[in-house]
Amino acid sequence: MKNYTITVNGNVYEVTVEEGISGGAASAPRAAAPAPKAAPAAPKAAAPAGAQGSVAVTAPMPGKILGIKAEPGKAVAKGEVIIILEAMKMENEIVAPSDGTIASINVSVGDSVEAGATLATLN
């Protein structure tokens, strides 16, 4: 048997693999002591409550908000830059997925966001 320590998405697992067994499954991974994670920042609403739009603009990856290029009420075209997200030392332009009007901006410059977090909404 061989023991391995594997990290997947920040979670550490200890895995034991048996050698010389054909067709057998490896033992189920057991979680090691979880690495401490920083609590995700609560989104800050730039528009009044209930002013969420029907089209959500989400973060494609975790990162830090470097800039906001649109404000609520502004009409945007499909592909127009709304937010600049820094991830892995690169600036990523988050663009409008369709034509519409910005209903809300749910983040502020300097916020850290997780993948899938709603950054803004459009009507």
Sum up the structure in keywords.
single chain; 123 residues; mainly beta; four-stranded antiparallel beta sheet
The strand count comes to 11
- Provide the low-confidence segments as ranges: 38-50
Question: What value does the Rg take, in angstroms?
Answer: 21 Å
* Fraction of helical residues: under 10%
Number of helices: 0
Query: Which sequence of SSEs, written as H and E, runs from N to C?
Result: EEEEEEEEEEE
N- to C-terminal distance: 57 Å
Please report which band the strand proportion falls in: under 5%, 5-15%, 15-25%, 25-35%, 35-45% or over 45%: 35-45%
Strand order in the sheet with the most strands: 4-11-9-6
Which overall shape is indicated by the principal axes computed on the Cα atoms?
elongated
| Class of secondary structure makeup | mainly beta
Calculate the mean pLDDT score and round it: 80
What composes the largest sheet?
4 strands, antiparallel
Q: What does this protein look like?
A:
The protein is mostly beta strands. Helix content is 0%, strand content 44%. The protein contains no helices and 11 strands. The chain has strands at residues 2-8, 11-17, 30-31, 55-58, 63-68, 75-76, 81-87, 90-95, 100-105, 112-113, 118-122. The strands form 3 sheets. The chain has a 4-stranded antiparallel β-sheet, with no helix packed on it. The protein starts with a strand and ends with a strand.
Indicate the topology.
Elements: E1 2-8, E2 11-17, E3 30-31, E4 55-58, E5 63-68, E6 75-76, E7 81-87, E8 90-95, E9 100-105, E10 112-113, E11 118-122
Summarize the structure.
The protein has 123 residues and is mainly β. It contains no helices and 11 strands.
